[in-house]
Amino acid sequence: MNTFNFIEPDEILSVTIRGKKYPVKKSGQGIPCLFICLGTPSFRTISKNFSKHFTIYSSDVYWINENCLENPESVTIDTIIDDIKLLADALNLKKYILFGHSAYGIIALEFAKKYPDAAAGILMIGTPINSNANVAEINNKIFENTADQNRKEIDKERREHFKKEDLIGLSQEESWIKAYIYRDAPRYWHIPTFDCSKLWEGIHVDKLLTHLFEKVLPKINVLEGLNKIKIPVFLAAGISDFDCCPWMWKDIPHLPQNFIISIFDKSGHWPHYEQVDLFDQRVIEWTSTIC
User: Fold this and answer.
1) Under DSSP, is residue 133 helix (H, G, I), strand (E, B) or coil?
2) Residue 1 — very low, low, confident or very high, per pLDDT cuts 50/70/90?
3) Fewer CB within 10 Å, N or C, the chain?
4) If we measure between CA atoms, which residue out of 33, 30, 27, 32 comes closest to residue 6?
């Protein structure tokens, strides 16, 4: 596969949210596309062709150590949603696409429930049907029952090896990234041994991210009120994404009327990187019908 950092920012903007300044990378030209929550990994996996059709706005806001909040434990889903709205307003965006990778797609859907007229559409990638222990258990069973033997053997070997890793001196967030890169590769990538270390290079995740996945997201049932969402939703689902199993959305009843599930058969959790040309083609075609 190609190296990361497909695009570079055309300029760095500065926005103020609740009295605190944050840098925002801007790149491309076209339909406004706002990357929500931890923006850098998504920015590093977007093609130059994509940036010819979209004006990309990407920021890590307070999800990294450099911009951390004083009281991360006080952050709720409403805080996050409201701050995304403040970010879009500060950038003077109108009828933009919300880009939500992984569980951030859940946040994008919750955003659409609270601010139904703000965004023109939601682009979700690898989003699970919820982010909690029950869904994780179901997804693990899917992996055990459906993954090929080679992938399962690599997964088992890496998990056993990781148990022996010396993680002393690493924060919980640093350990999480280390696990993501090595231990969990067979569940994230179509190529089960793919090394994504450069994707996370220089990113210092704040403990707020742990708070998000351990305290905030498990309390959300995104399926409640889902059918009330009126704006179009495009879900890119890699068939080798055994961490989030996003194709399971096809079995959810009462989806929003304009909810498209697009399957990528040679991708895992990152189809915008693993099948970049096909991803760009499908998303550009989708936006041509809604914008």
Assistant:
1) helix
2) low
3) N
4) 27
